[in-house]
Amino acid sequence: MLETQLKARGIKDEKVLKAMEKVQRHLFVPENMRTYAYNDEPLPIGEGQTISQPYIVAYMTEFVKLNKNKKVLEIGTGSGYQTAILAEIANEVFTIEIITSLFQKAKEALDGLGYKNIHFKQGDGSLGWAKHAPYDAIVVTAAPQRLPEVLQDQLENHGRMIIPVGETFQDLILVVRKNNTFKIEKLLPVRFVPLISTH
Ligand code: SAM
User: Which of 24, 50, 108, 118 for a ligand 1 pocket mutation test, highest count of atoms within 8 Å of Cβ?
Assistant: First the structure.
C-alpha cells in the first residue's frame, strides 16, 4: 500500500507515511470486508457510509501539515481510520460523528488501540466545535454543497482546512487562513458522502 498507492502517487511527508504504515486499516472495516481492507478504494462501513480510500486519507492529512504541536478538528469520524492517522501525528484530535452506531464503533476501536489524544463528540459537526476552537487544521470527510464560513472562522491564523465541496461531484478544497483573509485552492475532483446538516 505504502509504495504503490501512496509514494508512487506523490505522498512524501514522512510523518504521514509512518502513520499510514502503522495504523492497520483492517481494524476499522467490517468483518466481511477485511479481505479488501488494503485495496485502493473506499469500502462500505454500514449506514450508507464509507471508510475513505487510503490515498485520499494520506493526501488530506498531508495537505493540512500536522506535527506534534497541532490541534485538529475532524468532521465525520466514520470508521475512525483517518482519526487514528491524525492522532498519530497531531497533538490533539477533536472528532465529531453524526451517526450514533458509527460513533460508538469508532470510539470503541480507537479507545481499544489506546489513543489518549482523541476527543469524541456524537452529533452534527456542520457548525464545527466552537468550544475548542481555534484549530490549526480542520479535516472534513463529508461534502457540504458550499464552503461553510462557520468552519473557516474556527481556524487559527495560518490554519489549514481541507474539505470536499459540491453535490454529486465535488472538488477537494484547501482553505488557508491569513489573519482575516482565506486563500482558497481547488485540489482534486473527489466523491464523498454528503455532509448532513440538521441546522
Ligand atoms: N475518514 C472516514 C474514515 O476513514 O472512515 C470516512 C468518513 S465518511 C466518508 C463521512 C462520515 O461523515 C460519515 O460517517 C458520516 O456519517 C459523517 N457525517 C456526515 N455528516 C456529518 C455531520 N454533519 N457531522 C458529523 N459527521 C457527519
Answer: 50
* pTM for the structure as a whole: 0.98
Q: How many CB atoms lie within 10 A of CB 184?
A: 12
Using CA atoms, how far apart are residues 198 and 126, in angstroms rounded to an integer? Answer: 8
Active site residues: 52
User: What does the pLDDT look like over 73-107, one tens digit per residue?
Assistant: 999 999 999 999 999 999 999 999 999 999 999 99
pLDDT at 197: 86
Q: Domains along the chain?
A: 2-190 (3.40.50.150)
Residues with CB under 6 A from ligand 1: 49-52, 57, 75-76, 78-79, 81-82, 96-99, 102, 124-126, 141-142, 192-193, 195-197
Contact 46, 29 (CB under 8 A): no
Q: What's the CA gap between 37 and 44, in Å, rounded?
A: 11
